[in-house]
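Anyone up for a design puzzle?
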């Protein structure tokens, strides 16, 4: 299933829009690779921390956007919520769809 990685919310030239969409697609692919390589459900913030640890320093909001895009495309599923960073602010847990994690165990992201 294809999805739109970048959501145009500001006036950009065509070249700027293409560059932003390309960068967002790469972020989506990287976040999906994280979920494929980490064998447990996680929040968008945990995925963001994994990306930071791998020296990808995009904004937290970009990681949240990527997780949402992957969820809407059916590449991730929601499993419930956990306590978030702030008391009373739950975060959704995401994972690969049932059976998909086994396809990627042992493969490099």
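Challenge accepted. My sequence:
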């Amino acid at each position: 299933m294809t999805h739109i990685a970048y959501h145009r919310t500001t006036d950009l030239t065509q070249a700027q829009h293409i560059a932003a969409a390309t960068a967002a697609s790469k972020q989506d692919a990287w976040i999906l690779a994280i979920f494929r390589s980490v064998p447990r459900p996680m929040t968008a913030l945990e995925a963001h921390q994994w990306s930071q640890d791998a020296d990808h320093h995009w904004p937290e909001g970009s990681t949240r956007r990527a997780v949402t895009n992957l969820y809407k495309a059916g590449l991730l599923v929601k499993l419930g919520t956990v306590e978030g960073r702030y008391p009373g602010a739950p975060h959704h847990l995401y994972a690969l769809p049932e059976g998909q994690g086994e396809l990627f165990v042992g493969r490099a992201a």
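A detail worth pointing out: The helical segments are 14-37, 44-53, 60-72, 100-104.
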